[in-house]
Write a structure and sequence with these properties.
By secondary structure, the protein is α/β, with parallel strands linked by helices. The chain contains eight helices and 15 strands. The strands form four sheets. A seven-stranded mixed barrel has the order 1-2-6-5-4-3-7. The protein has a three-stranded mixed β-sheet with strand order 8-12-11.
């Protein structure tokens, strides 16, 4: 059986079951288990898959056609795919782009990630939006001899741990300090190496995205450290235990982080200021998010 013909099941913890076709690592025995969320971005599926903030999450893409342009070695946000799984409406049979080196399903297969296509992603998105994110399980049901695959998938989804309280920063962080020299991308030359820095900047790596490093690299030299050392946070937006990181962050870089903090910088700062933070319901992510400046009562848009 090819991946295009292997049946697959997405089961939610509330017992809802979606049936479709498997994509990616159809031989993965355990399937894909994680919190099911959705992303409304129309482009950037490779960046989303490799975004460390999706560690432990099965990402549903609301845009219907995903995989049209294939994948390439440059459009990644980290060292590997961190999303636990992928849910899409339609996977094109052919990928076409001059930068493409591989199709999406093969990319997932090589990373050991199982996904599902040909399901009603609109229905799934409405459920997540109205009821909130919940755990789910994707399994490839074809050719396995499973007679009750749906019940098995529901049981796995219900047995999965809640995202709340998981320390995912240690999963997505680096193991050792590293230097970052890559700058912005240019047609014909790819990512340029930057020289002659104006500033020396050190970054906390809680799962920092490569695009953050590339863009900020235009302003100075980066040196990233395992989970905590100095100034700017990474992209870990899932709930993590940040209490034990509070002191080092506050002692070394609270003022800097208030100016340059990204993503999980804010939970660190909120915890230090003895305020509370909690996850928003709905499981929604996207290229931009709405928020309000309370002092001026002005609506604004910001990046995820």
């Amino acid at each position: 059986m090819t991946s295009a013909s292997v049946p697959a099941i997405l089961a939610l913890a509330d017992g809802t079951v979606f049936r479709g076709r498997a994509i990616g690592a159809t031989s993965a025995a355990e399937g894909s288990i994680g919190e099911v969320v959705f992303n409304t971005a129309m482009t950037g599926y490779q960046e989303i898959l490799t975004d460390p903030s999706y560690a432990g999450q099965i990402v549903t893409l609301t845009y219907p056609h995903v995989g049209n342009t294939g994948v390439n070695p440059e459009d990644v946000e980290s060292r590997r795919i961190f999303a636990a799984g992928l849910v899409i409406r339609d996977l094109p049979r052919l990928a076409s782009n001059w930068r493409s080196t591989q199709d999406l399903s093969s990319y997932l297969r090589d990373a050991g990630v199982l996904g599902i296509c040909d399901i009603d992603t609109r229905k799934l998105t409405r459920m997540l939006r109205e009821k909130g994110a919940q755990n789910g399980c994707v399994i490839a049901a074809g050719g396995s001899g499973r007679t009750d695959a749906a019940a098995e998938a529901v049981a796995r989804a219900r047995a999965a741990p809640s995202m709340s309280g998981l320390d995912l920063a240690k999963v997505v962080s680096c193991d050792a300090p590293y230097d970052w020299n890559g700058g912005s991308w240019a047609l014909g030359s790819g990512y340029r190496t930057r020289q002659g820095d104006r500033f020396h900047v050190v970054a906390y790596d809680y799962g920092i995205k490569h695009s953050i490093l590339r863009l900020r690299r235009e302003l100075g030299e980066w040196r990233a450290f395992r989970r905590s050392r100095i100034a700017v946070n990474g992209a870990e937006t899932a709930p993590v235990r940040l209490e034990r990181r509070r002191e080092s962050a506050a002692q070394r870089a609270v003022d800097v982080m208030r100016r340059a903090g990204l993503a999980s910088a804010w939970p660190v700062l909120v915890t230090w200021d003895q305020a509370c933070n909690h996850r928003l319901d709905g499981g929604r992510f996207g290229g931009s998010e709405r928020f309000q400046r309370l002092a001026r009562k002005r609506p604004c848009l910001g990046g995820k």
